[in-house]
Hints:
The structure holds 2 protein chains of 2 kinds. Chain A is mostly helical. Chain A has one domain (2-57). Chain A is 62% helix and 0% strand. Chain A has helices at residues 2-26, 47-57. Chain A starts with a helix and ends with a helix. Chain B is α/β, with parallel strands linked by helices. Chain B folds into 3 domains: 3-163, Rossmann fold (3-Layer(aba) Sandwich); 175-253, Orthogonal Bundle (Helix Hairpins); 286-708, no CATH class. Chain B starts with a strand and ends with a helix. The chains are: A mainly alpha, B alpha/beta. Chain A binds chain B through residues 1-3, 5-7, 10, 13-14, 17-18, 20-21, 31-39, 41, 43-45, 47, 50-51, 53-54, 56-58, and chain B through 27-28, 30, 34-40, 54, 56, 63-66, 69-70, 208-210, 213, 333, 335-339, 342, 345-346, 402-403, 406, 409-410, 412-413, 416-417, 419-420, 422, 424, 513, 517, 523-525, 527-528, 531, 643, 646-647, 650.
Amino acid sequence: MGDVIVLIVLVLIIGLVIRSMYRQRKNPKECTGDCTTCGTSSCKVDWDLIRKDIREQK
Amino acid sequence: MEIKIALAGNPNSGKTTLFNNLTGSRQRVGNWPGVTVEKKEGSLKGTNDVTIQDLPGIYSLSPYSLEEVVSRNYLVNEKPDAILNIVDGTNIERNLYLTTQLLELQIPVVVAVNMIDLVERNGDMIDLNRLAQELGCPVMAISALKGKGTKEVAAKAVEVAKKHQVALIPDIYDKTVVSALSKIQSELQTHIDDSMARWYSVKVFERDERIDEFLKLTDDKKSKIELLIKKVEEALDDDAESIITSQRYDYIGTIVQHAVKKKGSKHELSVSDKIDKIVTNRILALPIFILVMYVVYTIAMGGTSISIGTIGTDWANDVLFGDIVPNFFDGILTSLHVNGVLYGLIMDGIVGGVGAVLGFVPQILVLFLLLSIMEDVGYMSRVAFIMDRIFRRFGLSGKSFIPMLVATGCGVPGIMASRTIEQDRDRKMTIMTTGFIPCGAKMPIIGLFAGAVFGGSSLVATSAFVIGIAAVIISGIILKKFKSFAGEPAPFVMELPAYHLPSAGNVLRATWERGWSFIKRAGTVILLSSIILWFLQGFGFTNGQFGMVEDNNTSLLADIGNAIALIFAPLGWVGDMAWKATVATFTGLIAKEEVVNTFGVLYNFSEVSEEGNEIWTLIAQDFTPIAAYSFMIFNLLCAPCFAAMGAIRREMNNTKWTLAAIGYMCLFAYVSALIVYQLVGLAIGEVAFNFWTIVALALLIGVIYLLFRPGYKPKSEALDLKGMQTAK
């Protein structure tokens, strides 16, 4: 009986962990404007376009 | 009616601090450029319909950096209802240059003179009423850091936005220029929004190519305008852009003369200047930086009485995860009469593995706290300046060093911060080398070996950081000689903000953010890996039968590890520890803390290992000092974790370059570890002369050749030389 309880708890914890990791991957946090702490792919700035803009201006 | 107010101003003038104050946000305030590189919105506290936009810092509306383009595009194209122009009161003359341009946009402007407390402390005086009169717009004093005057200035900005209270165009230029601008304006009439006529006419006068392209003028109009500009240039004997710039500064000079009274002489050094004379001194700067980092690592990870990080980690390893947590789980599992396998999984796998990583949280928090203090005080921007001077000799720029400073927390944002580097080749090189800097996740590896093998010496951690910087410089020199990376580094212009006492809020928040991310990873990725690792090292084939093994040297994990371990034999990973070190290195790809977790699981397998320091004893038995250092170097310099690889992939946007970056790091790490183990080991008598010693020596000669060989010269230099020869 003890084994079953521990196994259930373990499976629940693992499930929650996997769910949390999946959610984080699917919905990365929004852009905070601060590239230096950004760890996501939610960047909405088109850096290539900005670089092209500057090159053309120069 | 929704109102949008934009915060515009020079870098480090206090925009983000004001933004946080007005909106209740917690945006990060950094003291070096590139912290805010995208606009961020927030609602003004106490309102539903007023949005505040925090913009990246700009010196003018003629941007030369990526951050400046973001701000300018927003102001010119999206036209906020009002601009709250933050001006650094301690540096008012330079800050007002942007103000004069903002006024020409004919959008309602409120000038907020920030750091008024510092102005008063310096004994200077700013006549706000006179300044308002001269500029033709409201001017108010604030201290964003202390929250003084911030509500009032926001209320004023809302008021001018609602009334659309636009300032009169300031009387900046002389008659000649004004006459030309009026004529240009009449030529542009049908092409532009009347409200921004002055701004466009100035831009056309300056021959701004982007604006010319946007306006699509007929050839006839272009010729008329060009003639007008040339006449003014002849009359004033200067080019158009310089005429505008110098007349702006003359105008600002007059305003400052009337409205600002400085206590000291113009050339008197401020406290920050006096400190900088020492801290950024040509000879003293680098030794001071190394000393500062040594002190930081000593306090965080050393073995002295002031090493509070180590004291905390010792307690965490010996008491918390050595006694309290294992006893707690042991009590529960024993009372539930769970079977041996499940008991082993939880105690040896999860508690042993996760505990080994979490034990380093005190060291991590102390390290991040100290780095955050250095950042908040303003020292980190000096470091970027110091490193620019050094890096430039090796073909890199100080702007490349900023992502590396960020990478001391985590490599992923460090790699992402490289996106603000304009030049492709410098950006690629920065991405490839940022991973060499020890990140927070690598700290437990350093802490583990420093404690287990090197008696808690803080020199180990400091040397790891120095090795990281050396790897960046060596890579910079080598890579710059190849065609793909050759060329002069980009200019690096940066304002050094005044030193100030660290803000407890900023420092604690930054420390907690980084520390929490470390703890969260332990509870997710590390936890799952512990379970898989425990299974793989607890089960195997004995006499052809699959089942639990007594000795993890005969486990599935050992079989996998031993198959690969041969390639690391030249690095000194031999004997029973070879497969463990190999497996730990590969699990480190999941997250660098995994290395410690893996050792925690593998060495916890033994029944005698109940306390953290017994694991350290076992590790010390398996690793000689030189093998330990070689292992550490390899893991510090080799391919980063999967998350960082993903960041590299995104930033490179090219599979070939991504693989090249990762391959380069692995190769560099292997060669470095091989050279250290074989040659240093031979020198100190720990390693006997063998075939790999010769290989290491050959590789060392190869590296020296790559460092000193003549590199690829970009075409323009070759053409110049040809021209000179013809002239002779």
